[in-house]
Amino acid sequence: MHIRKAQYYIVKPIALIMTIIVIFVLFYYLQNFNIGAHKDAATIDAIIDTSNTLSILTNSEDCLAYNPMELGVYGSIVSTEKLDDFEKKYKNIEPECSRNHMRGWHAEVKDLMTGDNWTFGAPDYPMKFARRVLDQRKVSSMPIALRYSPTKVNPGRITVTTFAGDLERVSGFIDYVCMAGRRSFATYSDSRTFHIDYPITYENNTMCIVLGKDKICRDTYCYLFFEGIPVAGEYKISAKYLFTTDTVVVRT
Amino acid sequence: MKKTGKLKKAQTAEILNFLVLVVAVTIIILVLKFVVIDQMTGTGGTAQEAQEEGSFRSGANAFMVMTEERSGKTFLELLGYVGYTENTTVDLGGPKNPLVINVTEEVAKRLDKIYGEGHWYLELPIPHRSGIEIIVVSDTSGSMCNDVLDLKNGLREILRELKDADKETRVYLYFLGPFPAQGCFWKDNASDSIHNAKVSCTDFDEIKCIDVSLKASKRCKEVYPLHPGRGKTEEDWGNGLACLAETGPEYKEDSKEGWGDFSIRIIMPLSDELPCGSETCPGKDQRESLEHGIESAKKNKVKVFPLRADPCGITCTSASGPCINMVTHMGGIYCNCGSGLLVEWMNEIADETGGKMYDLAGESNSAAQAIKDIVYNQSFERKPVVLGSPIPGGKRIRSFIVAAPMPNYDYLNLTLKQWN
What we know:
Shape of chain B: elongated
Oligomer: heterodimer
Number of helices of chain B: 10
Largest sheet of chain A: 5 strands, mixed
CATH class of the largest domain in chain B: Alpha Beta
CATH architecture of the largest domain in chain B: 3-Layer(aba) Sandwich
Largest interface: A-B, 53 and 45 residues
Strand content of chain A: 25-35%
Strand content of chain B: 15-25%
Number of strands of chain A: 12
Number of strands of chain B: 15
Helix content of chain A: 25-40%
Order of helices and strands of chain A: HHEHEEHEEHEEEEEEE
Number of domains of chain A: 2
Shape of chain A: extended
Structural class of chain A: alpha+beta
Distance between the termini of chain A: 75 Å
CATH topology of the largest domain in chain B: Rossmann fold
Helix content of chain B: 40-55%
Radius of gyration of chain A: 26 Å
């Protein structure tokens, strides 16, 4: 009888411990699920953003699309004149027509018959830095028609690489303030909080992320009064577009 | 004893509680995994699929406006030409400056680059044939009178039968010159001639009949300005059919010319001699005339169904004059040549063009019946032009239908399919 009682008192705590373990497993799983869901959502966002960038670039007359109304056909016809222009103007920055303020992107257009190619947009990250610095990097491409003249339209392919890291988020925010101010012909200001992992510098319209001895740089739309972010940390960044001087003052 | 039982029960309940908890937790995890996470993954897959669908459509849109480098024509236009001409190679130049484009080859080159080799399929439907146009080009030398008479007597009835059977058929008769009156054909009605055999176009009220001498024909001069054998004799059916294959029929009522859109094109030379005559068998002019006919028929997608008339019968040349036995006449040259080399040549032109020879001295004893037989054996359906790779099973296939304009202001719906 004593043995049975002792047996009962052993089973009860063991059951309790096992229950705690099971609940812990469930909690751990839920936690992981939450993280996984966030990652999945971010991946979906990245896919959609990349796809949208491609669509805007090829279908908007403000971007590369050749006057679609004239042809009576919508989309996918890219003017090589515009490509030449974009290659000259947007070597280290995305064109305003398809700027995404949360992500940077780089585009490459190739003529599939002649092998000619054009590149524009912010410079892509070398793979050794991409894995370390970026939250997301997506590559997507689609076939297009390259219009040289009414009688010369060749098959082409446009490839867009989108990437998001500290540099893209900070420069995206500042470019957004610059564009909003320019469009409203008025002084415009905004502020946002960022978690920064790597130092950011600014000099002569060029903003860089410092990765040890290396730097990845991109241009900004407006001239900035910005001293950069020397160390990692949580920062509230305030940016003010001054209409009179067409500049942005940035404070951290 | 009672206490022991209670403890045992409590112990069992404890274990059961734990088991229930484990099952509940497992169910929660499974629900999360299969419902929520799969939903999320599904959304990701949908976004990816939407991107791929957009990419496919972009490629299709781009393909529509791409141009062929030498002609400057869009591929949509070129495919319209292919559908219209039923020829995968089109010549956009002229006789002096030919600009031959192998459309299917150029299309494949571009779609391979756009979608990758083995990842696309293109189907271009060719419009079905909408009727049959038959040109009978007849030798009018004296020995042909009975056959021409047979045409005169039988054709009208056969055409009525075909009309009743909903077989849209137009027949045009071309009598080889030179004119005026020659052999059994008269320019004016001459039904009082011997055996009532002489005919003129006025005998064929309901049939489009053209009394044309190749020598005098402006249309044939334009087609073959330099050919020496053109219209040499009333038996020159090789050059005659060559001219008609190029120009198509001449409509009687509205002066329109040329073959109808999408009709089945048939020419039936009716003769008992070699083209240009059997006096020399064979001769250089005769062979040239035949080759001319083969070349033009093939080029214009005309099927040739020769009607070999009896070269060994009795021919009466005038009402009062004697009748001639062709077996012995001129040492039997007409009979022998018409029974040997003529059969060979008529079979040759039929084989080369997808037609068939009808022997009016044998089983097919009536030209009009031969026409009926030909009409009933024609298929109006045409196979589509198919490019790319066969569509694989078990893959997600994307599809796009686009209208390609044809030169006759009609459209063809071409289907483009793609898979990863």
